[in-house]
C-alpha cells in the first residue's frame, strides 16, 4: 500500500507533554499542519496508554492526520492505526499480519543503508534515519550524516523520515537532501504554550511548500 507521506511528523513525549499538555499541545501541532503523529510513551501503564492513544486517534481523524503508535503492535492493532518499529521492536512482516491492510508501518534504519534495504524488503511504508543532529530526547542514538540521507534518497523509492535534533534552523537542509518527513519532539513541544507549538508546527510545515 502506498501513502502520500510528506510533511511534519510530530512525536509525543511523556515528560514534555505531562500535566494536561498532551491533548492541547498535540491539537496545536495538528492545527499547525503536522501530517503524522506518533504516540511515543515508554511507560507500562496500559490503561492510560489506551486512553491517551484513543484520544489522539480522535484528534488525528479530525485533522485528517495519521496516527502511528511507537513500539506496541497490540495497541496499534486495537486502535486500527499505524506502527513504528525499531530494530529491537519485533518483526515488521509479523506486525503487518496484525494490522489493517492500509496501516502505515515505519522502520528505524539508524544510519545504515543495509537496515533500510531489509526494511524495504520487509514491506516498510517509510524508512527513518537519524539522529541527524544532537538530540535532547535521545542523545545516544547513532549519528547519521547528510551524505547518508542523499544516498538513501537515490537508492530507495520509499518516503524517508529524518529524526534527531531537528530544529527550525536545520530543517531546510534535511528537506533539501531528500527527507520527505521531519520527525520532531523537543523543538516542537519544549515550549510553554499551545500557541507556540502551533506557530512552530506551521513554520516546519511551510518549509515543505518552499523546498
Ligand atoms: C519516526 C521515528 N524514527 C525513529 C524512531 C526511533 O525508534 P527506536 O529506534 O525503536 O527507538 P524508540 O523511539 O522506540 O526509543 C522513532 N520512534 N520514530
Ligand atoms: C526517537 C529518536 N530516535 C532517534 S533520535 C530520537 C529523538 C528525537 O527527538 P528530538 O527531536 O527531541 O531530538
Ligand atoms: Mg522502538
UniProtKB/TrEMBL annotation:
Its EC number is 2.5.1.3. The keyword Metal-binding applies. Its cofactor is Mg(2+). It comes from the Bacteria. The keyword Ion transport does not apply. GO terms for cellular component: cytoplasm. GO terms for molecular function: magnesium ion binding; thiamine-phosphate diphosphorylase activity. GO terms for biological process: thiamine biosynthetic process; thiamine diphosphate biosynthetic process. PANTHER family: THIAMINE-PHOSPHATE PYROPHOSPHORYLASE (PTHR20857), THIAMINE-PHOSPHATE SYNTHASE (PTHR20857:SF15). This is Thiamine-phosphate synthase.
